[in-house]
User: Fold this.
Amino acid sequence: MTELTKYYRELGIRDEVYQFGDEILDSLKGRFEEIDKVAEYNQLKVIQAMQKSQVNENCIHYYASGYGYNDPGRDTLEEVYASVFHTESALVRPQITCGTHALSLALSANLRPGDELLSPVGKPYDTLEEVIGIRPSRGSLSEYGITYSQVELLPDGTFDYEAIEKAVGSKTKLVTIQRSKGYLTRPSFSVKQIGELIAFVKKIKPEIICMVDNCYGEFVEVIEPSDVGADLVAGSLIKNLGGGLAPIGGYIAGRKDLIDACGYRLTSPGLGREVGASLGVMQTFYQGLFLAPSVVAGALKGAVFAANIYERLGYKVIPDSKESRHDIIQAVELGTPEGVIAFCKGIQAAAPVDAYVVPEPWAMPGYDSDVIMAAGAFVQGSSIELSADGPIKPPYAVYFQGGLTWQHAKLGILMSLEYMVRDKVVELP
Ligand SMILES: *Cc1c(COP(=O)(O)O)cnc(C)c1O
Assistant:
């Protein structure tokens, strides 16, 4: 073990920081065991799905180009995703460029002029505001005559069933539910809670399509929203399900007629899912999905470790050190700009790529304050890889997520603390 601490020291972690982390870790054995059990369950789920679809070498190495008719890798992978989500169908493509695109596609494919979209869980993720047209935007659903209504959560973060019942009207065609809080301070929802909400909505109007924005939530629990009544679930492959290997992509899983509609919208009426060559990315999609349960487990351990470290040091952490987890995001309210900057510098300094770069706050387009971002990733913008960002404004919170391995997440968190100690932002107890 002296060799181990020597390595940490060489990487810049002082012994006191390492030891403080080690004490915290001792108290987390039970939590980590639970996380490993979920990963084990989801690993079996993925392997069983791959076996059932007889995934073979041809699926993985077939190089489809051109139109991509009869691409066996793509078609089989979509079957595997449908098995994992227990849905009739799935669309999993490199042509779906990101999570926002997957959600936008699912909405625009299944809504028509005159329909209304309802969010019963408050404001959706920032980028969805432009998709929907909450912020006026070229090509938004609003420009096509699709209206939008929103019901806020109650002050304690639970569903306002009374207001939801009032909001469901004759035009309401689709309900969108965001599983993860994203970068808001509301709680993230468990799959069970989402199931209760879906059941409530369907009781009022059975034909409503219920869609779940599943970003950051996949494989955190042993069930997915499609197991509790969601008609559509969508997300990004440079988050959980890409397992860190997918270089691009998004997925939508759900009812066959709704997924087919997504295919027609993604490519063209008439062509639908028949075209869209996979261009050699299939190995990363299969292997990434295979690794995803343990990658998500590593990220979750990192989030729990960070929550416990920073709560012990007196900071507000969301979720708190004991709460059960419904996504991989951890927020820490550091209270000062210096805290946010030191934290992010530490995360950057622990990266396998671009560790020598020093992140600085900057005026990023679309934000109303300077933002600092730390990431040294193999895939640009990948947030299943260890990353952190914080807007430089009160309450000076930093949002932290990812880690392809638990060991890297651990190093990153210790390094964030090292930088905070070094910059005299915090003192160890
Ligand atoms: C990341 C995220 C999105 C958007 O995904 P991108 O890949 O960044 O476009 C949407 N919703 C939630 C909850 C997210 O976390």
Observations:
- The two ends are 24 Å apart (CA to CA).
- The chain has two domains: 3-42+293-422, 61-289.
- The longest strand covers residues 172-178.
- The CA atoms of residues 50 and 218 lie 17 Å apart.
